[in-house]
Amino acid sequence: MPPTSLLDLKSTPLTAAHEALGARMVEFGGYAMPVQYPDRVLKEHLWTREHAGLFDVSHMGPAFLRLSRTTGDPDADHAAIAALLEPLISGDIRGLAPGRLRYTLLLGEDGGVLDDLMVGRPREAGLQGVLHLVVNAGTKEADFARIAAAVQGQATLTRADTGGLLALQGPEAAAVVGSLIPQAASMSFMSLARIEAGDQEAWVSRSGYTGEDGFEILSAAFPTQQLWEILLSDPRVRPIGLGARDSLRLEAGLPLYGHDLDESVSPIEANLGFAVSRKRVKAGAMRGAVRIARELAEGPARVRVGLSVVGAPAREGAEIAGADGLIVGRVTSGGFSPSLGRPIAMGFVPPALSQPGTALHVIVRGKPQACEVTELPFVPHRYVRAV
Amino acid sequence: MRFTKDHEWVVLDGDVATIGITAYAAEQLGDVVFVEVPEVGRKLTPGDGLAVVESVKAASDVYSPLAGEVTEANTALTGQPDVVNASPEGEGWFAKLKIADVAAFEALMDRAAYEDYLGTL
Fold first, then answer.
1. What is the pLDDT of residues A240-278, one digit of tens each?
2. Quick count: other Cβ atoms within 10 Å of Cβ A7?
3. Whose CA is closest to A203, among A139, A119, A140, A117?
4. Cβ separation of B34 and A247 shorter than 8 Å?
5. pLDDT, tens digit, for every residue of B44-75?
6. Which whole number is the average pLDDT over A317-333?
7. What is the fold, at CATH topology level, of the domain defined by B2-100?
8. Residue A118's CB: how many other CB atoms inside 10 A?
9. Is residue A264 part of a domain?
10. Structurally, how many domains does chain A consist of?
């Protein structure tokens, strides 16, 4: 890509900071984003696993969904906003406790995954009837239009992607964030808090996309820039680019939308059944409920698995072959695992070939290489569930 | 040392050409995690695949800039691909080729011409 095209891209509040740090900038989701800093992907990846990595994820799509007419009864208002969002997604939002965050899937009419997203319920009694959403960068325009149209007249969707979103990930993230925001250290994984400082507000969630403990912090442009500088001044923190974000999430077995997930893939095929409300499937109250119910009962035609690869990394698109040489599937994400020092991949295979230990082949540059189905995640998650 | 527009370097010793990728290419690739070098005895014509270099993010083919027969391959890179980053124009060489056409070597860019070329990128 010629460098001039980066000029046509959207920037984040931190674009100049990345350039000043010597980052290599690339296009991602319409934004100019740092793929790596001078440390490069391997070091950045391992730093995040050992210390704390700071990511600019301002290209993502945070938003707030607000009930237009609240009753003042917190439970009723939450139930009302949940009832508006649930028809679009796979998860149970009605049952989400105050201050909790849930990973869920935006579904098409046939149950295919249109996006994966986080939905949070504020803790504050005065903010019931509000949901905090974070969708993917590449899908946010379509998602926001879809959600806004579905709730029209009953709720409003307000984008919050004009400021900044930072992620601090790694085993030292809690100590670092706790020294700045004491209440953050006592949050458990997948919880959400609204923080006020002076006339500024920030939304802090204990969550992330690396398999490590960590936080994501949404605030306006200027506080984001200040927070970036303050966090980077801590010797435990280094800036991490999108290259390492991808290798970290791959090791953690987390799907990437547009690669491991797309509108042809069902939640069950994607091995994301945990994000599907069984109650709503049973009631037929979900897009694609018939397909999802059938796949739950009889098994899907294909399923997402992890693959440990011998030899060259198997990249997205590489064919997967059975022991008889017949093509049985395709790699949807693949690369080198810095933590394990060998190639890993994710892809889709028939359920009969999805058991961990199953020997398969991946076709790389025309040649079959050995691989083995491996339990996900490749590297254990280290989420802090109870504090 | 001679250079190509594909960011390879070639050193000629008698009729044996040693080939690798330049520091610029190694920097652009990022962390090299896998290298496939050619088998000894393989006969290459210009443009044939000489090696495969994989960084964390992507695979890149390295094409032979000269015609010749592979006399030696740097198999040490298989176990230590990061040598390509640490010493691209030294220990990170890929293969040695016995060549017949020294004029084809001489026709490649010298360092000054290669640096001018980098300036245009």
1. 999 999 999 999 999 999 999 999 999 999 999 999 999
2. 8
3. A119
4. no
5. 999 999 999 999 988 999 999 999 999 999 99
6. 97
7. OB fold (Dihydrolipoamide Acetyltransferase, E2P) (2.40.50)
8. 20
9. no
10. 3
Determine whether the interchain pair B52/A312 forms a contact, defined as Cβ–Cβ distance below 8 Å: yes
Confidence of residue A387 (pLDDT cuts 50, 70, 90): low
The domain boundary, picked from A110, A125, A156, lies at: A156
A327-355 confidence digits (pLDDT tens)? 999 999 999 999 999 999 999 999 999 99
- Phi, psi dihedrals of residue A178, rounded to the nearest 5°: -60, -30
Task: Please tell me if residue B121 touches chain A, with a CB cutoff of 8 Å.
Answer: no
C-alpha gyration radius of chain A = 21
Q: Are residues A42 and A174 in the same domain?
A: yes
For chains A and B, what is the number of CB pairs under 8 angstroms? Answer: 41
Q: What is the pLDDT of residues A179-213, one digit of tens each?
A: 999 999 999 999 999 999 888 999 999 999 999 99
> By three-state DSSP, how is residue B50 classified?
strand
Q: In the listed set A90, A121, A156, which residue is the last one of a domain according to the structure?
A: A156
pLDDT band, very low/low/confident/very high, at A5 (cuts 50, 70, 90): low
ipTM of the complex: 0.86
B33 touching A, CB under 8 A? yes
Q: Are residue A369 and residue A353 in the same domain, yes or no?
A: yes
Interface test with A, best of B29, B56, B84 (most A CBs within 10 A): B56
Q: Choose the closest CB to A36 out of B30, B36, B58.
A: B30
Q: By the CB < 8 Å criterion, does B34 face chain A? A: yes
Q: Do A41 and B31 touch (CB under 8 A)?
A: yes
State the Cα–Cα distance between residues B54 and B38, nearest whole angstrom: 15
Contact criterion met (CB below 8 Å) for B94 and B51: yes
Coil/strand/helix, residue A376: coil
- Residues A7, A44, single domain; the answer is yes
Mean pLDDT of all residues belonging to chain A: 96
Q: Are residues A48 and A170 in the same domain?
A: yes
Q: Are residues A79 and A137 in the same domain?
A: yes
| CB-closest option in B36, B54, B56 to A243 | B56
